[in-house]
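@channel sequence for tomorrow's demo:
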Amino acid sequence: MVVCSITIILLSILLAGCTSSNGLSNVYLVSLQYRNASTSVSDDPVLVNPGIAEKVYNISHGNSTIREVRAGYMGLCLTLSNGAQLCSGSAAALASMVKAEGIQSNDTGAADPLNLIWIAKNFKEKIVFDGLIFIAVVLTFLCFILLSTFPGWHEEIDENGSEREVKPFPSRPVSQAALGLSALGFMFGLVSILWQHVNSSAAGTMAESLTYGAIEGHVGTAAMILGWAAVVCLGIISLALLIMILSIRMLAMLTEDD
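structure tokens (generated this afternoon):
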């Protein structure tokens, strides 16, 4: 039950990443930020128009209002050039704030020259999918409820009249149902976190390539740790229930043989 609770907490924090600037801004899937140093493109013969890299660099290195954009499952976070952070579940609201800053400086386009907010919004809405994580949370919660019905320790009087503490075996159907729920939760969680990891890495790499290095892409370490830790916890729950069911079955067979 404790491991189930930990799993639900980990997945809940992961889903809530980038919805608030109070600590949750560090829980993000991918971050895109303008590179400070000058970029150089190698003399690759595949580059038909190598001059475009310099043009992209010149566009991106103005006095931009934002420095970094972080994308989570349910929100985006901006790091402004003055170090302040803004987080919201609405990309339109963040874009309006950035445009307002650009109007004050008489250059709306320079506020976000390469449209990092738009790129992060598309990543959040079109690439990542949080439905499987919600399913895993629900399945884990149902497993938690079933585990809470398992009998605990209680005192009984034996044939000699002395008291002893005993713990009955849990119901076989309930145990099997809990195992099924935990196994399904593990599979949904594994697919979702693996999908999250691959997509975040690919999105960061593609953003760097398509902007010729003018943008740096980073995968969120905290989000990956939370996700994979939750998957490990779900695996532990499933394995523990499987071992318990097999052990009870083996004991029952030995008892019948005697």
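heads up for whoever presents: The radius of gyration is 26 Å.
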